[in-house]
Design goal:
Elements lengths: L5 H5 L7 H16 L6 E6 L6 H14 L3 E6 L10 H12 L3 H8 L3 H8 L11 H18 L3 E6 L6 H11 L7 E7 L6 H14 L3 E3 L5 H12 L5 H11 L3 H13 L12 H6 L3 H9 L3 H13 L5 H8 L3 H13 L3 E2 L14 E2 L2 H10 L2 H17 L3 H9 L8 H16 L3 H13 L4 H14 L5 H12 L6 H17 L3 H14 L4 H16 L9 H10 L6 H16 L4 H10 L19 H13 L3 H18 L4 H17 L2 H18 L4 H17 L2 H11 L14 H11 L3 H18 L9 H9 L4 H18 L2 H13 L3 H16 L4 H15 L2 H14 L2 H13 L15
Parallel strand pairs: 1-4, 1-5, 2-3, 3-4
Antiparallel strand pairs: 6-7
Helix pairs in contact: 2-3, 6-7, 7-8, 8-9, 10-11, 10-12, 14-18, 15-16, 15-17, 15-18, 16-17, 16-19, 19-20, 20-21, 21-22, 22-23, 23-24, 24-25, 25-26, 25-27, 26-27, 27-29, 28-29, 29-30, 29-31, 31-32, 31-33, 32-33, 33-34, 33-35, 34-35, 35-36, 35-37, 37-38, 38-39, 39-40, 39-41, 40-41, 41-42, 41-43, ...
Length: 904
């Protein structure tokens, strides 16, 4: 009988994979040919045993032969709850090869953000932002990829990859156009649900046509494979039965033929009847029977390896199985010889003490499922101790802790709480949630249960507001939360209600807690929170006379602590939106600062008060013409969130409000850039949230003042800038901005109706500031031809409110409106007065518009020239065109564009 050597058997799973191998060769060649070329993503889809792993091994061989660096990782069925498992497998070998200081220098600002998730740096205090960590991981791989060109990344069993790594992979796939790197992902179809499925779908979309679905082997291929391994004389009937028994599954075919060789079974028609029972012995129950024939010790060792699942060392498996060192080494060798365990992938992270892997995930699953339920649970408990004793921490042990018996173990509850804290510190809130939910099922003793529910509510705050509400309400209904923690729980509950669009309930929740507290710092803090939510409520006031009560309480505050400073900020913001005297607004805000800076405990990343309060402070300065102070605060926010790795809603809001400040100052190009970045970030967090409205409203407003009306309309349509409006206020007023947009596109009736609604909503809230809610001046202009009497009345009212507020911008804008409704010398005088006020204002766009309007009315070439220069510096294209046309009409020489200036 002619035998074929092992080389043929090893390459057997590549039968009928010529097209796939050719695509891999082409991708590797393209990668190596041009360092400036964009990256490429290949996805291999196929059922278990269809040769995905063999194709990845072939990719490694091809890539290494061309001099590529190859990094690989593999998901595991029992490891899906281990956050960052796969991304750590990919990156740790390269990073651990560096000296710690080299790694820090290599990753730069991202070291403290991505380092803890990668296991190469200690986490900081508090919760890491998951989106920031994901962005940090993308940046880390990007930098490493550029340094290790040409680089190939291989990810096997992506259907079992942990959610955090999948999130990174989906984000990284979006950046492949910028990187010379080849990524090859292998996965089974289906098997994934929820967010993980969404991330995998995004990876598939990024791959586009480079998604290959593998099929079973044809009868001809199985016959060729059979004859290649058992000899050319293998009979056709035998070959057909091999195909029938295995359904053309490449892995099962190879395993069955290996059993045929081991049994020295002749490849003849008379032997074909033995193939089916032989195939059963290669998988499922048959595999377990075969395992048991190797002996009790070998069986226990295999079970221990299946429980550990990853980084399987002989020493740890021996301890879990209760074996001595020599017995364990012998068992590992037996299992290798039986094709159950093998040496790990040569490109994987080196494991200590003889790392092992299962030959195929199907074998690992069969062994794991063969362990009796009670024994499996007990072994997970021991495994948790083994992992902890190895110095890997409770977070690493938590996947085992999740599986142990529920028996009211107080120590287990504390271990799960600590594991949750470790998960939160590296940006894995879902893993923390699983630990805390398991702790509740233990269950904890009554007074600890409240704290676990509180911690669970904090863990889900960013991802599931509705769940947070449920957990925190339960926590507050129990004994165990006292003092500062209870106050914090009430605050976080109100935050969750706010984010879940339950504004009135948020206010009532805080109000009820205030009523039960005695006078003191805790009560004062919650009073400030109550006023804060009332201040951002876009509907009618939830508490009558709230502004009066806030003013009275703030009058007693000296700014001696955070609660008093918060009340002063809230008083300033409320007075600003109501259009009270701007100097008093600024005085109240200034008293909340310490030497002109934010006080300790009120920083942008401090969690006690949240982002809303400080955005109210900065906005108050922005709308009272103290744009220098607003700019400092907006830029501080951007730097703080970027350096802390907060890439989610906080950074989106920071960009939105920075854009608002730039728009107010008249730096329209920069404002548009910042607002587009805000919208991009807000899209990742989710549409419909207040931060999303802030981004879209300010972007539409900025495009309108630039004169890009068609683009503003397109953005509004694309991103849903339409009613219903959010329950929290947005600056500037979205109804007023949309009304102006409708007027600009020629939908005059709709625009007038929208502005009328803006006026009614503003009146209900008492928001009378004509700069924040500019409906009066916009409606006056719109009604000038149709109803001049009402238009004049609106303009008069706008001027009265502007003079009450008292800023140069407010008064100048009201005068601009009045001038637009007049004719002759009265119009000229009003326009001249508008210029005088706006010349002193920091708002350069409004100043430019006033100059140009005055120049047109007075037929002054010099005024038009000054206005044109201002309009150009602002990036106000429509205003620039208006000034140039006016100059041309006056016979002035044509003034060309500033060299190098282009329109967006």
């Amino acid at each position: 009988m002619t035998e074929v050597g092992p080389t043929a058997a090893v390459s057997a799973p590549l039968w009928e994979r010529d097209e796939e191998v050719a695509a891999i060769v082409q991708a590797v060649e393209r990668l190596c040919a041009d360092r400036s070329a964009s990256g490429h993503l290949l996805v291999l889809r196929g059922e278990a045993g269809f040769g995905k792993t063999a194709l990845l091994a072939e990719t490694r061989r091809i890539a290494e032969a061309r001099g590529c660096s190859v990094w690989s990782a593999r998901g595991g069925e029992t490891l899906r709850s281990v956050p960052f498992n796969v991304v750590r497998q990919l990156l740790q070998p390269a990073l651990l090869a560096l000296h710690p200081e080299e790694a820090r220098e290599y990753l730069g600002d991202w070291y403290d953000i991505a380092g803890p998730a990668l296991g190469i740096a200690e986490p900081g205090e508090g919760h890491a932002d998951p989106q920031g960590v994901c962005d940090g991981l993308v940046a880390a791989v990007t930098r490493l990829a550029r340094g290790d060109y040409p680089l190939v990344l291989l990810i096997d069993d992506a259907h079992w990859v942990d959610q955090e790594s999948l999130r990174w992979l989906a984000a990284f796939a979006e950046h492949l156009d910028e990187l010379p790197v080849l990524v090859v992902v292998a996965r089974r179809p289906g098997e994934v649900t929820g967010d993980a499925a969404g991330h995998l779908d995004a990876v598939g979309e990024a791959a586009g046509r480079s998604v290959t679905s593998l099929s079973a082997l044809t009868p001809a291929a199985v016959a060729g494979l059979t004859r290649a391994t058992r000899g050319a004389h293998a009979e056709a009937a035998f070959c057909r039965e091999v195909w029938a028994v295995t359904d053309g599954n490449p892995y099962e075919t190879v395993e069955l033929l290996a059993k045929v060789r081991d049994r020295e079974l002749a490849p003849s028609e008379s032997s074909a009847t033995e193939l089916r029972p032989l195939n059963r012995a290669a998988r499922g129950g048959g595999l377990v029977d075969r395992l048991e024939k190797l002996g009790v010790d070998a069986t226990k060792f295999a079970m221990a390896a299946a429980i550990l699942g990853a980084d399987i060392s002989v020493a740890q498996a021996a301890r879990l199985a209760g074996l001595g060192r020599e017995e364990a080494v012998r068992c590992a060798e037996l299992l290798r010889n039986a094709r159950i365990l093998t040496e790990p992938d040569p490109g994987a992270a080196p494991a200590d003490d003889g790392g092992l892997e299962f030959v195929h995930p199907l074998i690992a699953t069969a062994v794991y499922e063969s362990i009796p339920g009670g024994l499996r649970t007990a072994m997970h408990g021991i495994a948790a101790q083994v992992v902890t004793d190895a110095g890997k921490g409770l977070a690493a042990a938590s996947r085992h802790l999740l599986q142990v018996h529920e028996e009211g173990d107080e120590e287990l509850v504390e271990q799960l709480r600590e594991a949750a804290r470790e998960h939160l510190a590296v940006g894995a809130p879902d893993a923390a949630r699983r630990c805390l939910e398991r702790a509740l099922r233990e269950p904890p003793v009554p007074h600890v249960r409240a704290r676990v529910l509180y911690e669970l509510g904090c863990a889900t705050l960013l991802t599931a507001p509705a769940k947070t509400i449920e957990h925190l309400r339960s926590a507050l209904s129990l004994q165990g939360l006292d003092g500062r923690d209870r106050v914090d729980a009430v605050y976080r509950l109100s935050q969750a209600l706010l984010h879940n669009d339950q504004m009135e309930e948020a206010v009532r929740t805080v109000e009820a807690e205030v009523a039960r507290l005695p006078p003191g710092p805790a009560r004062l803090r919650l009073q400030a929170v109550q006023f804060m939510w009332e201040s951002v409520n876009a509907g009618e006031p939830t508490s009558p006379h709230g502004s009066e009560r806030l003013a009275a309480l703030a009058a007693t505050c000296t700014g001696r602590d955070s609660a008093e400073r918060a009340l002063l900020i809230l008083r300033g913001f409320d007075a600003m939106t109501r259009g009270e005297n701007a100097e008093e607004v600024v005085e109240s805000c200034d008293r909340a600062l310490v030497n002109g800076r934010l006080a300790p405990g009120l920083g942008w990343t401090d969690q006690e008060w949240g982002i809303e309060l400080l955005m109210m402070l900065a906005s108050s300065y922005a709308y009272t013409d103290r744009l220098d102070r607003a700019d400092v605060l907006f830029n501080e926010a951007l730097r703080a969130y970027a350096s802390a790795g907060w890439s989610g809603g906080h950074l989106a809001l920071a960009h939105a409000y920075l854009g608002l400040g730039l728009r107010r100052r008249g730096r329209l190009r920069e404002a548009e850039e910042s607002l587009r970045e805000s919208l991009r970030l807000a899209e990742r967090v989710g549409r419909g949230l207040p931060l999303y409205w802030s981004a879209i409203c300010n972007l539409v407003d900025t495009l309108l003042v630039r004169g890009h009306v068609a683009e503003a309309w397109e953005i509004a349509e694309q991103y849903g800038f339409t009613p219903p409006y959010p329950s929290t206020i947005v600056l500037p007023d979205p109804r007023s901005v949309r009304g102006r947009l409708l007027l600009a596109v020629g939908r005059v009736k709709d625009g007038v109706n929208e502005l009328e609604q803006a006026g009614k909503a503003a009146a209900a809230r008492g928001h009378l500031n004509p700069v924040v809610v500019p409906w009066t001046v916009e409606l006056a202009r719109a009604l000038a031809g149709e109803d001049p009497a009402r238009a004049a009345g609106l303009a008069t009212e706008a001027r009265r409110r502007a003079e009450r507020f008292g800023t140069d911008t407010a008064i100048g804008e009201a005068l601009r409106c009045a001038a637009a409704l007049e004719t002759g010398q009265r119009a000229v005088r009003l326009a001249q007065q508008a210029v005088a006020y706006l010349e002193s204002s920091p708002c350069q766009y409004e100043h430019a518009a006033a100059r140009i309007e005055y120049g047109i009315l007075s037929r002054s070439v010099s005024e038009l020239g000054r206005g044109l220069a201002l309009a150009r510096s602002c990036g106000a294209d429509a205003l620039t065109d208006k000034a140039q046309q006016a100059l041309q009409n006056l016979g002035a020489p044509q003034v060309g564009r500033v060299p190098g200036q282009t329109r967006r």
